[in-house]
Every structure is written in C-alpha cells, then in structure tokens.
Amino acid sequence: MSQETGQPTVTLTIDGMTITVPKDTLVIEAARQAGVMIPHFCYHPKLAPDANCRMCFVEIEKMPRLQTSCSTKVAEGMVVRTTSPTVQQARKSVLEFILANHPLDCPVCDQGGRCDLQDFSHEYTPPVSRFTELKRVFPKEYFSALIETQMNRCVQCLRCVRYCDQVMDVKALAPQGRGTLTEIKSFGHHELDCEFCGGCVQICPVGAITSRLSMYEFRPWMLKRAETICGYCGDGCEITLQTKENRLIEVNSTLGGGRNNADLCARGFFGYHASTHPDRLTTPLVRKDGHLVEVTWEEALETVAAQVGWVKDEYGPEAIGGLISARCTNEDLYLFQKFMRLVLGTNHLDSSVRYGYMNAIEAFRRVQGLHRWTVTFDDVVAADTLMLIGTNVTETNPITGLKIKEAVKQRGARLITLESLKPVRGTISNIATLATHHLELSPDQFGIGVLGLIKAVFEQGLVDSALEQEAPEYVGALRTKIEAITWDRLLAHSTLTPSMFHAAVRTFEQGARSIVVVGQGVLRSPGGYATMVNIHDVLLLLGRLDRPGCGIAALAEENNEQGAIEMGAVPDLLPGALPVSDPEARRAVAASWGQEPPRTPGLTMMEMIERAKTGHLKALFVVGENPLGSLPPSAGVAEALDRVELLVCQELFLTETAQRAHVVLPACSYAEKDGTCINTEGHTQAVRKAIEPLGESRPDWEIFSALSVLLDSPMEYETAKDLTKEIRNMIPASRVLGPAPLPPRPDREVLRRYILGGYRDDLDGRLTPPPVTKTTGTMTLSFAQSLFHSGKFSTKAKGLLKIQSAGVANLNPQDAERLGVRTGDRIEIRNEGGSAITPVRAWERVPEGVVVFPEHFDQDLRQVMSVTVDPRTGVPYCKLARVSVEKV
Amino acid sequence: MDPGSDGTTKLMASKYEKILLKNMEQPGYTGSLQDYEKAGGYQALRKVLGGIPPDEVIDIVKRSGLRGRGGAGFPTGVKWGFIPKDHPGPRFLCCNADESEPGTFKDRQLMERDPHQVLEGMIITCYAIRASLAYIYIRGEFRLAAKILERAIREARAAGYLGSRILGSELDVQIHVHAGAGAYICGEETALLESLEGKRGLPRFKPPFPATHGLYQKPTVVNNVETLANIPHIIMRGAEWYASIGSPPKSTGTRVFCLSGHVKRPGNYELPMGTTFRELIFEHGGGMRGEKPLKAFIPGGASAPFLTPDHLDVKMDFESVAMAGSMLGSGGVTVMEEGTSMVWAALRLMEFFYHESCGKCTPCREGSSWLVQILQRIWQGEGRMSDLDLLVDLCKNIEGRTVCAFGDAEVAPILSTLRYWRSEYEELIARAEASRSSKKELPVVA
C-alpha cells in the first residue's frame, strides 16, 4: 500500500532497479517511472494496449517467451530485463521486419527528424538490411484536403484507428486489407469525412499520416516552438505553435501538457493560419474625407487622444464607452478596463461575455457567491453522472466533450443529455449517442426541459432532506409553483414523456459525483439567466450543489471569457470580479491604481448601443469586437455607430464595425503576444509569443498604454509581464500559473441567503414556461456553432475553410422531404425581418422542425434574427428565430 | 467403397468402435431429428436434465480426459471450469466451426451428416456452463453445412430440445448460426469472437482469456465442433468409459483423422487416440496411391511440422506426436510420396499462410511476405545458399513472438522441411548458382 494515497502498490525489479508502483501498472509504464524507455510503436498511454507492434518485448523471469511490456501488468516480485541480449535481438528483428517493406524515403518525409522508426532504427538495427526482395508498394490515393496518408510508411500500429475510436468516438478510420496489404483508410469508400481533430496525424509514430497544411515546408529541427494557449474556445488547450522564419508552420500538443493532455480539435490543429491571413491590418488607418487612409502610429494615436479628450471635455466621461473581445489576453482586458476607468473615467465598458456567459456568472454570483466553476475537467472525468443541457459540446467545446466521452466510455459514467440532437451516429461524433437518458429538445425548449427536471425531482421524492429542514419555505414555494405547471403544458411540443424526466433525475441522483454541464443553448437563448438559476435549484433540491465533485460547469465560448470577468472587463465588476458598487472594493483597487475607479454605474453593451442611438454616447472604443457583424440589423448597431463622434477600433481585420471607424489601430493576434488567459474552468495559463507582430501591429495593451500617455494619465509597462505582475498582486486567485488552484467551494453564507429568501425575487417569472409561440408551418432557426469554426475569426483560417467554407442550412431529412429538397438544393428562409436564400443539407442529427445554421456564415441571414435583451443580465438574445422555409 | 476426393467417409469395416461417425455410417441415416432420436439421440440431454447438476457435468468431462479437437488440445472440462461461477451477466458458448486448416475436413462432415449430435453437445455444454445463448461460427464456404444446421436447429426447437424451458426444465438455450467471411484467422478463438461481434477478425492478445473476457467481454467457452460432438457420448456412457479409450491418461477417446494426399483412400477415419500413423495410412487408408513410397507426411494440419517415414510408428496422441517434434493439431494427415518436392510443398503452404496472415502483428505480417518471397525465389532457381540460414533466422524471429499461434504455424513447414530435407533446398540453389555463374551478374547489394 502506498502511504500517501492508500492505493495498493506492487514492488518489482526492472534492470536491477527496485521500484514500487501502483497495482495494475503496465510494465512499460513502470519502466518509464524507473527511467527506462522501452521502445514501442503501438503503445500509447491514452489507448487500450493492443500489443501488435511487438517492439516492446522484455524478458520476465519465470515467464516463457518474451512478453510485450505494453500489455503485461506488474506483479509483486516480478523481475524484468529490458536490455538482455535476447531482448536486444528481438528488437532488432522486429525493426528488420518493419523496415523490410518501409520505403526509407526519409528525405521527403515530414516526420523525418522526429520519427520513432528513424530513432529506433538508428539505435537498434545494423546499417545493412538482409531484405533483398521487392517491397510492397501501395498505389497513392487521395485521402483528404487536410490530412495526407503515405501508407508505404505505415507500421500498422493502429494507433490512429484506436485513437479515432477510443478517444474521439468518431470511428472515421479503419484498417483495410490483410497481412502486408493492410492499409489505413477512411471507413467507407469516400474521402475522409470526420472531425479533423488531427489526432491521427499527431499520434502516428512515423510519417504515414501527416498534415497537408505544412507538407514539405520544414524539417523539424528548423522549427521554433512556443507553448501557448489556443485562442478559439473556452477550453483553453495548450498548443505548441511551430514557426519558421516568422511563419506559422504547424501546431502540436504535448502528452501530459495543458488541460487538453495532447488532444485537440480541428480549430486548434488546423486553424492557426487565421493569424497570418493576408487581410490582416498592418498599419493604422484614419478616416480622411470619408476614407480610411494609412497613417503613422503617431498620427493615429494623436488623432484618437485629441478627439477623445475633446469628447471628454465637452460631454464628460459618461459620453464614452468601450467594448472588448474576450479573445484578448488578461493583460489586454485588464488594461482596457483600467484605461476606461482611470484614464477616461467611465464604467461604460463591456466585453463579449455579454453575449451569454454573463448569464452563468450572474447566476453563480447570486446563488453560490462566486464567479468560477466549483469543478474542474478532472472532476468531469471522475464524475459518476453527468448531465448536459443545451451544450452541443462537441461543436462548442470539443475538449470538454472529450472529458465527457472519457468519463462515459472509459470510466462508465452515466450520461443524461438534454440536447437538441437526434442520437444518430454520423461522420462527427454525437454526444447524445453515449447517453443513458437522452431528452431531445428543440433549441428553444431548454428552459422547459429544466422545469421538467424540477418537476420530476419533486414527483420522484428526491428532495434533499437536509435542505427541506433548513429551508422548508424555499422547497415549498418551488413545489407549489412547479405543481401548478402541468406536464401537458410543459411537453406540449415535444415527444418526451414525464417518465423520461423521472428516469433521468433518478439516474442523476444516484451518482455521488454529479455534474451539470450547461452550454450556449441555455446561455444564449431567451430566459438564459432564469434557466441558469433554475439549474441551480435542481442541484440544490438534489443536495448536489455543495458537494465535492459536484457542481455546474457553464461553458465559455471564447477563450478568455473567464478572464474578462476576473479582469473586470464588464461595467459592474472590478478586477477580481468585485462589485463596482462596493466601496471597499473600490478602495482596494485604488490602493494599486492610486486613484479610485468611478462609482457611477456603467452601461452594458446593449445599453451603450441604445445611448449611442439617442446621441448620448459620443465616443466608442471597440477592441476586437464586431457588434455590427454579431448583432442583427434590428439591434440598430449601424444607427448607433453612425451617430457617435468617434469610433476607434483596435482590430486584426477590417470588420463591418471597423469599416465605419474613424480610427483603426492594427492589433496583433494571440500568436504575436505574451500574456495569460483563463479557461472556462478557471485555469490561468500563459500565452506566449510565437512570431513577431505582423507589420506595424501592436498588442492591445500597448495601444492603451500609449494612449494613456498622450491623455496625460500614463500607465506605462515595459512588457506584458509587468502587467501580469500587477494583475497577480490585485487578484489573489490568478496568482498561480500552470496547475490551477483548487476550485472554490460555494459560499455557504450566500447559499443560505438564497434559500432563505433570495430565491423569491423572480420566482414567478422563472418558474413559468414561456408562452407557446409555435405557429403551424414555421420552423425554429438556430444559429449554432460549427465544430470547424469559432466566431468569425476562424473563417480566415485556410485550413478550416477547406473543411467548411460556407453556411448551409441543416434540416432533418424528414423535413427536407416534406419541403421537397435534397442536400445541395436551395431554400428560402423568411420571416417578418426579411428573407435569404441558402443551400440546404439533410442531416440526421437535426431534430424535426429545426433549422440549424452555422453562425460563422450568418451575414445574409442576420436580418431574420430579432433581439430581446435579458432584463437582469442585459444579454442580447439573437440566436433563435421563427421562420418559414420554402424550396426555391 | 472407392476412394473419393470429396472428403466423405469411406464405409468400411473397422476393428474399432466408432463414436462420432457411428450414426452416419448406418445405411439410410439422414441426420434428421427422427433418425438421430432413433439412434439414441438427445438421451444424454434428458439424462443431465434428469438430475446431473451442471458442476457434475463439468466434472464428468474433466474426468473423461477429453481434450480440444481444434488443434491446441486443451482439456475441455478444465476450460469449462474457468468460467467464473459468480459472474452476474450473461455467458456464452461459441462452437468453432470455422474449419479452415488445410488438410482438415472432419467438422464439416460432422455437421453435414449428423448435425443433432453437435447440437446436443452444445445444449449440454450450455447447461454445464450456465449459458443460454450459443453461436455456431461457421466457415463462410460451408453453405451446405450451415443450411443443414439451421434446419436441425428448427427441428430441435420444434421438438423442445432448444428454446426456453427445454424438455420442461428450467434450461433455456438459443443457438444461432453465424457464417464467417473467408478469413483463416477467424478460426483462432479470439479473432473468431471479434468477427462474431461484427468487428475485423483480428486476434486479441491474451490474457485475458475468453473464459473471463470473451464474446462482448463476457465469460465465453469456445469449443471445436468435434469436441462438442463427443459430449453426449461421454454423458451417456460415462467418463471412465471414455477415459479408457485411446492412450490414457493424457489422450483419451477417439479422433476423426482426415487423411489426404497420395494415398489410396483419402477420407475421414475415426480411430482411437494412439493408433499409429502407419496403421492410419497403410491399413485404413489403403497405403500409397501408386508405386512410389511415402516420403513425408504432415501429421496434424498445415500448421504442424512435417514428419518422415521414420515417424510412421509414432502414436497419434498429443504427447507422442509432440515428442516426435510435431503436433497432432487438427487431425489432418497429409501424405506425400517420393518425388514430391519438399521446397515446393513448403512454398505452397507458405503461400497459404502469407495470404491468410491477418496483419495485426509485425513478425507475422512482415515475416510471411518475406519468407514467401525467398521460397519463391529458391523455387524459381534464383536462390542463394545464404538464403537457408536467413530462412531459419527469420523463422526463429517469428516463432513465439506473435500475438496468436499463427506465427508458430507459418514457420513449421519451412523449419521442418529444412530439418529433414535441407539437401533438396541446397540442390536447387546449387543448380541456380551454377547457371548464374555462367552469366555475368551484378553483385547483390543489400
């Protein structure tokens, strides 16, 4: 037994060294711990052993024949020899066999220089082969636009096939043929159609599967490496950006590194070219005679300083507002809000968390008294029961999706999904197929689904008895409200039955470690905040909110939404997510800034737009945000921008918003700057510069710093590190970089306040199902995230455009048949807002009555969106619309 | 009867009592349920259901000394005993009817001519291991046998020998016939299970063994057709009776030997274990087909090393054949007469193994293609003397280093022919080198 962990251990001898390892460890892993590297091809710690390459033979005393160390578990007193003459001879012979049919085309192989076969051959084989026969040659076949196969190099270790099945749950690859004619091909007679996670490229020990994006562009030793964080989604994957001569060449990830532990998605692996797209802005632009013309930084900055100074003098700080993207680093976000508050003197600042994540944060703050998850990815993997509500997790947060797949497929967790998905397998994985209970909902029904859960908790008598004692009124009020809602009313528009909800909550309740994962479907749909609070109620009622390993994980869409909250890049929160209204918090900030931040309440994004429309907001700073491109025409962003006297954009590209700016300042992307960001589970991680800034572009924080000097309130920092230091001093929670601190526990005091009265505020509103809006003949249009894109940024990545380059409306095949359309046909989508024509695809996973359109390509469809704003959180809801659909 | 080449049994008198082939050799026996019942069929099933507890059935089979007839010869009762007693979920029986070993054709006949004998064995086995679902994984080419089995299953179900509450007891057994798709490797028990699960037929590495992690990772017994056909007889006549036949204690009972090659009367012969090869070939098989004397024989299917005339008096039981350096294997005895080229014979078998290597593990996959190319070269007069040592070396690098027993099998023909008839290889190569030396040749660069 290990003294520290209480786990049973085994002591064995490897090459004369005595080592104690946990029971059930594989010999190859035990050897690694003893510092002995046993050569192997097919073994991979992420995969179940297959023992097919026979490279990892070792001699074990008292065992006949050589044993494969990748498939043999340690045993007490085992004596292992990894370098005996017999073992050496066996390795030699296995390599001789592998090399027999290998083309030895190392000079033209992208793996050359980091190839296991090359390294082991160098170490174990004689310089001359005894093989003089004809080598097997596979005819070259086209595989896919992004992934290249060269099957003559394949060692048939099946790592790629096993990874695609066991980790990704995609099963896109399959060995075909027999014996030496075994080839890895896509499953079925068509080119590869899969999630393009790049896992097969990364896990291939030789050059059989490589990336076409970087083909023949490098030799590995020419590459410079920067360990950084992917800029696409809230999962915050560690990636290694590899560069040559200031060009991005490829992306890798490291086993054991980051929160992703070497797994990536298509965006992370193939999306890196967005940063260096030729359309990047490289010089500052100033509008002169109605046109944006290139100017020097000095001129641009002086223009901004002069004009904003004039606005401030003329109209006061309340006439200035700012918006920033949560894709920026903590340093950018922090300095942005400091710039707005300290230099310009306003709290009118907001960030893209306002598009939905804010709903989760406000609910967390209200019920649990915190602004972070109480669970980590590790808790997700270790959970016994997981419930997904409106996540579309594979598409929005693919790596969180992998954690869920690992929990279900490898650790036997039970999964409940309230998703707008039909549980059918397709070319990309579908989390609903792994569910023990799948409740299929239309994308506008997640709120109703959560009400169903509350109802089922009461009907099944699963209310936590401690809670009932502590807060009988709370439980009673909920019970009364929910009993008044009939199942008929809740389930009027679905095929679900009450017993399905009963079964789901019973299963969920059986887990000791139960986690609810909430996604964009909830956070970005009308009533998102109310539903988020209701989800808290479900967990409170089941006694699962304040238990170790249990909690609510709300998924951030952008990579640093959590950072935006913690840096205070929202109107009512200061750094550390402390309320602006709290005098103590303001004083604490003043201790560092030398001056108190303004106390006047700030405006949210939508309020700023409204104030601009009425002419009250005169100057607007927009940093990496594109409200004109994100919100529908009916939101009136164009009118608002037309009225402001000064629009300053810090941007990578000339977006719709930037095209209307008075001054455009070229910012640099995540690949060109240092800093930190915080992923969705609250881990602070380092972003590191991989290439020099393109053209004259500069990090956003540098621009704020330069402006502050011109505005006579200098905030000067030498490097991003200086900023990081200031942030760490102000925000204790972000002091630790790397392995995150333990997740916070809910604040008992705040919890008590909630159940003893706080819940009442909006109880009537949130426990009322939304009115029935369904009119016959219409469908629900849902703007959803695609697996292959993230916002609009990724549509600049040439790799991702090879997988998906345009928007297609996805329909259930039955709906398509009813409309008389087939994949490739065109449909007209129409409502009172306008209409647009788009190609269509029949897709089995889309529920009936729903049209799913990728939000990244919504330009032409934006007019059918309408906006409603959440009364409590100011979140604009515009991802759903009721439309009629016709064949064109 | 005249010798036939279709592998059917020759109806000839034998000095030994037949067990498995007894029914089918009765004139007019059709293998129908009626005929089988008339010959005493399903009495064993009635007997166990009448009051022999499952564990006692396992014990009887253990004591009978019955060993697997598929090739490896593992004691059947012991294998059954490995099924965990307290396992909660389902457990399965798989009848391995993927008879693909070159020179072996006994299972096919047992299934085609007396299908109920196999079914009864399976039902009793299910009873013993407490399985209620059994599969017959049958070689894809055996269309007739599959059809006959399907019919027999329908008959048995209608008569209450299969289905739920068999013969009024608590026993439920369903049997399904599943046809393979033509891969030799699927006769390997774990590859068979993979294939049965609908996956690619590749062997799994062991442990865990099928007894604990078999079909769908549930406890599973995989038994050969002939093994299962023996069960009703052991039940009816007792373990001691069975154990007294053959060469006890280690090789008991009879075996159906498949005699083929250059003999007068090829066919299936059921003989007690321990009968000599000489008796099989010269007495039962009628001796060599012509004037030429016997040169070599394969004693147990293509995977067994070749033996020579010196081994004719070896007894056909597991231990004796192993002592002689080969194995009793599947019971397929292939006889070759003087004048047969052993290089050619090895090449012929190597081509088979090359074609059938599944490709899962390196030594077998790469080794088989390399070996077959060397043998082809030698046979075509392009050999080099150094090839012989290379062949042996490559075989040693395959033997014992593969996932399944295929690797050991594929090197057997080469190693054994090189052992006894190396001179044949040398002559071929010498001739080739002589003819090459007269031509100008570029040196071989490795």
> Over all CA atoms, what is the radius of gyration of chain B?
23 Å
Q: What portion of the residues of chain A fall into strands of 2 or more residues?
A: 15-25%
CATH fold field value of the largest domain in chain B: Rossmann fold
- Fourth-tier CATH superfamily name of the domain at 357-556 and 749-764 in chain A: Dimethylsulfoxide Reductase, domain 2
Total domains of chain B: 3
CATH topology of the domain at 357-556 and 749-764 in chain A: Dimethylsulfoxide Reductase, domain 2
Largest sheet of chain A: 7 strands, mixed
Share in helix of chain B: 40-55%
End-to-end separation of chain A: 71 Å
Q: How are the SSEs ordered, and which strands pair?
A:
The complex is a heterodimer of chains A (888) and B (446).
Chain A: E1 9-14, E2 17-22, H1 27-33, E3 57-60, E4 67-68, E5 79-81, H2 85-100, H3 116-124, E6 147-149, H4 159-167, E7 173-176, E8 183-186, H5 199-203, E9 209-211, E10 224-229, E11 238-244, E12 247-252, H6 266-270, E13 285-288, E14 291-294, H7 297-315, E15 320-324, H8 330-343, E16 349-351, H9 357-368, H10 377-382, E17 385-389, H11 393-396, H12 398-410, E18 414-419, E19 437-440, H13 446-459, H14 465-470, H15 472-483, H16 487-490, H17 498-510, E20 514-518, H18 520-523, H19 528-541, E21 551-554, H20 561-566, E22 573-574, E23 578-579, H21 583-593, H22 605-613, E24 619-623, H23 627-630, H24 637-643, E25 646-651, H25 656-659, E26 663-666, E27 675-678, E28 684-687, H26 700-710, H27 720-730, H28 748-755, H29 763-766, E29 778-784, H30 798-803, E30 809-811, H31 813-819, E31 826-831, E32 834-842, E33 850-854, E34 868-869, E35 876-877, E36 880-887
Parallel strand pairs in A: 1-5, 15-16, 15-24, 17-18, 17-20, 18-19, 20-21, 24-25, 25-26, 29-33, 30-32
Antiparallel strand pairs in A: 1-2, 3-4, 3-5, 6-9, 7-8, 10-11, 11-12, 13-14, 13-26, 22-23, 27-28, 29-36, 30-33, 31-32, 31-36, 34-35
Chain B: H1 33-38, H2 43-49, H3 54-64, H4 76-81, E1 92-97, H5 106-113, H6 115-129, E2 133-138, H7 143-158, E3 174-179, H8 189-196, E4 220-224, H9 225-237, H10 239-243, E5 246-247, E6 251-252, E7 254-261, E8 267-272, H11 277-284, E9 294-298, H12 318-323, E10 332-337, H13 342-356, H14 362-379, H15 386-398, H16 406-438
Parallel strand pairs in B: 1-2, 1-4, 2-3, 7-10
Antiparallel strand pairs in B: 5-6, 7-8, 9-10
Helix pairs in contact in B: 2-9, 3-6, 5-6, 5-7, 6-9, 13-14, 13-16, 14-15, 14-16, 15-16
